[in-house]
Specification:
α1 packs across α2, α2 crosses α3 and α6 packs across α7. The protein has 2 domains: about 80 residues; about 90 residues, no CATH class. The protein is mostly helical and about 180 residues long.
Length: about 180
């Protein structure tokens, strides 16, 4: 089965899955961030390009490439990928995620971090950008991500709130002193 056919069948299955929850095709289209008439055209056989497929996947909370994967009726109605082999990484988003992590660490005053030793922040940045449907770093997402990452770093160090001392995890991000990370 080619990707165009898989996209069409998976979109039909996705709409069928969302119908009990959202009710009308119009509500589903709004949920998927598109005009109802455009959703109708896609369901009627209009070819769906890569950008539209990725936009639908993001809006529906599906993994990247989910619409492209041929699957049985049971898999399609489940609305989730079968396993890790379904993961597809968007090169544009991964480049932005690297940039976002680098700028965030500079913003937080963390200069001793290596993505080669701990890929968690990079994975978190990718997930953050992907879920927001963004492929570039903006001042808004840099600020939001910096706050979210600072909170994750505090949680990972065992601190309930900023400035509250907690257990230091030997695997925690960065090997510098704690005062540097507390700037967050």
């Amino acid at each position: 089965m080619d990707a165009i056919t898989a996209r069409h069948l998976n979109l039909q299955a996705l709409v069928a899955t969302l119908k009990p929850q959202l009710g009308t095709q119009k509500a589903i289209a709004i949920h998927l961030d598109m005009a109802p008439s455009y959703l109708n055209q896609l369901l009627s056989g209009k070819k769906m390009g890569d950008d539209v497929a990725r936009k639908i996947e993001r809006a529906a909370g599906l993994s990247h490439g989910w619409l492209d994967q041929p699957r049985s009726d049971d898999d399609a109605s489940a609305g989730a990928p079968a396993g890790s082999q379904d993961l597809r990484i968007d090169p544009e988003i991964i480049a932005s995620a690297i940039r976002l992590v680098r700028l965030t660490f500079a913003n937080l005053g963390i200069d001793d971090f290596s993505n080669e030793e701990d890929g968690t922040p990079l994975a978190y940045a990718y997930e953050y950008l992907y879920q927001r449907g963004e492929a570039t770093v903006t001042p808004d997402n840099l600020i939001d991500f910096s706050k979210a990452l600072a909170q994750r770093l505090r949680e990972k160090d065992g601190e309930a709130e900023e400035g509250t001392p907690g257990r230091r995890d030997a695997r925690s991000i960065g090997s510098g002193d704690r005062a540097t990370r507390r700037k967050a």
